[in-house]
Amino acid sequence: MRNFTCVHDIGPLSEALAKARYVKENPFADAELGRNKTLLMVFFNSSLRTRLSTQKAGLNLGMNVIVLDINHGAWKLETERGVVMDGDKTEHILEAIPVMGSYRDIIGVRSFANFESKEDDYNEVILNQFIKYSGKPVFSMEAATRHPLQSFADLITIEEYKKTAKPKIVLTWAPHPKSLPQAVSNSFAEWINQTGYELVITHPEGYELDPRFVGNARVEYDQDKALAGADFVYAKNWSAYKDPNYGKVINMDRSWTVTTEKMALTNNAYFMHCLPVRRNMIVSDDVIESPQSIVIPEAANRVVSAQTVLKEILLGLK
Ligand code: AN0
Ligand code: CP
Fold first, then answer.
1. Is 137 exposed, middle or buried (0-12, 13-18, 19+ CB in 10 A)?
2. Is the C-beta atom of 150 inside 6 A of ligand 2?
3. According to the model, what pLDDT value does residue 108 have?
4. How far from chain centre, in Å, is Cα 219?
5. Which end of the chain is more exposed for a tag (fewer CB within 10 A), N or C?
6. Among the bound ligands, the one closest to the CA of 181
């Protein structure tokens, strides 16, 4: 594997999950693989889990790790070609990317949708410039449309907790005061759609996701109906995808918050969320603190997904 930006880069999921299990059971088996190889992690946006788990994954593989926060300490970057740079941007991304490329062997990039142009966001303009101009393998640490390291960790977690061969998984929208990307939800749907598990996506009208990610999942506008019989409830907020409201919060209906009453409709489902989560907006204190909440093991599996991906990229360098 050279680049990792979506589910299709990892190969057959059964094999990827077997590799992840091996990594989880033998975290230091490949401590020589990354010797003298440098991992550079570039963040255009904040992070707690991705920052720590991906560094830990690189260190477990014996890599040297460098982290750069573009907006704290680096020069402000212009990303559009042809702009007269007489404003606050000091450096162009077209120089910055190959310079960064010259300092490392593998690069991870976090660059959220900025909601200024749906076309640029959905064409992954920033991530693709890294792929095109850095000359080195690139992996996504959440880009504009997907968060594949998260989805891989989510699926590893579902495999660990599922009680039936084909669990019912419900992705539910929940309210949030600020505009959030669709990336986590898009990506979750994209990965679960590859498994053959039952996927139901529920949200208020107006929050329809890009049909390319929804795929064959069932869309249900009644959250209670969607939750009936669920084995896993995956909560997430996202802003509107559909025009003319792209990137906007169009309602904050708190009747969509995942509460004990909502969880009672399910088949004693496990509760999942990628974190960070706003309590009592997305999920009640009671639900996130309940024994059915698996958000902490889910976050712990971020090391496993990152290490599995980095290992595959390192093997591809040989
Ligand atoms: C981000 C999002 O919704 O995409 C990152 C989640 C992993 N969340 C926030 O910005 C709060
Ligand atoms: N889930 C996740 O990616 O968290 P961070 O934004 O803290 O990295």
1. buried
2. yes
3. 98
4. 21
5. C
6. 1
CB 180 less than 6 A from any atom of ligand 1:
yes
266-279 mean pLDDT: 98
- Write out the two tokens for 68: 């750069």
The pLDDT value given to residue 73: 86
d(CA 10, CA 19): 11
Q: Is the CB of 276 under 6 A from ligand 1?
A: yes
Query: CA 182, CA 203: separation in Å to the nearest integer?
Result: 12
Q: How far apart are CA 81 and CA 211, in angstroms?
A: 30
For residues 90 and 76, give the distance between their C-alpha atoms in angstroms, rounded to a whole number. Answer: 6
pLDDT at residue 71, as a whole number: 87
Task: Tell me, rounded to whole angstroms, the distance of Cα 253 from its chain centroid.
Answer: 24
**Letter string b/e over residues 188-226, b meaning 16 or more CB atoms within 10 A of that residue's CB:** bbbbbbbbebbbbbbbbeebebeeebbeebebbeebeeb
Non-local (6+) Cβ contacts of 221 within 8 A are: 202, 203, 204, 205
Ligand nearest to the CA of 185: 1
* % of the chain beyond a pLDDT of 70: 100
Q: What is the DSSP letter of 11?
A: -
Question: pLDDT tens digit string along 166-192?
Answer: 999 999 999 999 999 999 999 999 999
Name the residue type at position 285: D
Q: What is the largest CA-CA distance in the chain?
A: 60
The 3-class secondary structure across 99-127, one letter per residue, is HHHCCCCEEEEECCCCCCCHHHHHCCHHH
Neighbours of 232 (CB within 10 A): 25
Domains with residue ranges and CATH for the chain: 7-146+302-317 (3.40.50.1370), 150-298 (3.40.50.1370)
Strand bridging mode 77-78 / 232-236: unpaired
Binning pLDDT at 50, 70 and 90, where does residue 110 land? very high
